[in-house]
Amino acid sequence: MPIHKVSVIGSGNWGSAIAKIVAENTAENSEIFDTDVRMWVFEELVGGKKLTEIINTQHENVKYLPGIKLPSNVVAVPDLLDAVKDADLLVFNVPHQFLPRICSQLKGKVPPTVRAVSCIKGVEVSGDGITIIANYISKELGIYCGALSGANLAPEVAQEKFSETTIAYKVPNPNDTIDARVVRALFHRPYFHVNVVDDVAGVSLCGALKNIVALASGFVDGMEWGDNAKAAIIRRGLLEMTKFGREFFPECKAATFTEESCGVADVITSCSGGRNHKLGAAMIKSNRPIFELEDELLKGQKAQGVTTAQEVHEFLERRDKLEDFPLFTAVHDIIFKGMDSYALPQILEDVEQKF
Ligand SMILES: NC(=O)c1ccc[n+]([C@@H]2O[C@H](COP(=O)([O-])OP(=O)(O)OC[C@H]3O[C@@H](n4cnc5c(N)ncnc54)[C@H](O)[C@@H]3O)[C@@H](O)[C@H]2O)c1
Ligand SMILES: O=P(O)(O)OC[C@H](O)CO
What we know:
With 355 residues, this protein is α/β, with parallel strands linked by helices. Helix content is 50%, strand content 14%. It has 16 helices and twelve strands. It has helices spanning 13-28, 51-58, 80-84, 99-106, 133-141, 154-158, 180-187, 200-222, 226-248, 254-259, 261-273, 275-286, 290-298, 304-318, 326-336, 344-350; strands spanning 6-9, 37-40, 45-46, 49-50, 74-77, 89-92, 115-118, 123-126, 129-132, 144-149, 163-168, 192-197. Strands 5-2-1-6-7-10-11-12 form an eight-stranded mixed sheet, sandwiched between helices. The chain has a two-stranded antiparallel sheet with strand order 3-4. A two-stranded antiparallel sheet has the order 8-9. Helix 8 (200-222) packs antiparallel against helix 9 (226-248) and helix 8 packs parallel to helix 12. The chain starts with 5 loop residues before the first strand and ends in a 5-residue tail after the last helix. Nicotinamide-adenine-dinucleotide (NAD) binds next to helix 1. SN-glycerol-3-phosphate binds at residues 121, 151-153, 211, 214, 266, 269-270, 274-276, 303-304.
């Protein structure tokens, strides 16, 4: 069996936590993987020093995952092409707005036999089309890409607190040596349980759309409406996520939304402890623009729900489907049109069955 060489593209909060997991597994499975894991870092100065140098000497991403030791076989690399050189398994993990530029740099430089897993939670909208990130990577680079998504707040995973995740990986070629078993061996840890499924669209959409729901739950907490209101938002959000998947990606399975970590479990965790939730609550409490709060509160980290709410809204508007997704539409309108968040119950009531 060939030894697989893994590179992680991205080194933010989740990028670094995933690099830690992957490096723990490559070190323990040297019959499957090359031990060294290259991690592409968007270079910047932190306290006057290059972040890559800090990571490679202190073994800590002091800016994006402070307080967590990274295994010494994680090697930070500032040049993207150097980072992916000779790798046959790429793990994509950047905020989704930065992916097009990364793909344009990699285009034509990655052999078609390379395989990838996307840990990115977002979608790509252009024209009147919507593309899940795994398919965007496949199309841009001409390689197969699966998806990893779950109830996985990075700081908790990095502290090795128990969580579960879902990986969608469908072996594209029966002769591939990178199969579900290899992919599971790369990500599964005693504290990070992996379930491998084949619903790439469902897993990807869960990860992207739950961020819109998390913003709504933040609004509810910002208004101090309590747990019943939050449960209502979670229920309505999950229904809209499932409806969106079934309508625009008919290959999705409803069970992915209701039974997997990437579905119901991620909605619950994101609606309590996530960055999108935090920003939604702060926006309502402070009545300040959300992008300003993102810079101030997240210190360089990104909340993907704000751009996803905008992208999904643009897509639904072009399809004349806004009314079918009242919660997604309300989240967009509260952020971008100054709609009053106190109108949420009435908006949701308008589309409920009337007796
Ligand atoms: N953080 C979490 O808890 C978590 C958990 C699961 C999934 N995710 C998803 O993982 C993906 C990556 O998120 P993250 O938390 O690692 O990132 P993050 O929010 O920490 O974002 C910061 C990263 O973006 C990089 N960056 C900034 N400007 C850039 C540019 N112009 N080009 C390229 N990179 C640039 C920074 O260097 C840093 O690595 C997202 O889709 C997110 O939704 C995050
Ligand atoms: O902090 P958030 O809102 O980006 O959510 C993080 C993860 O996606 C939770 O699973």
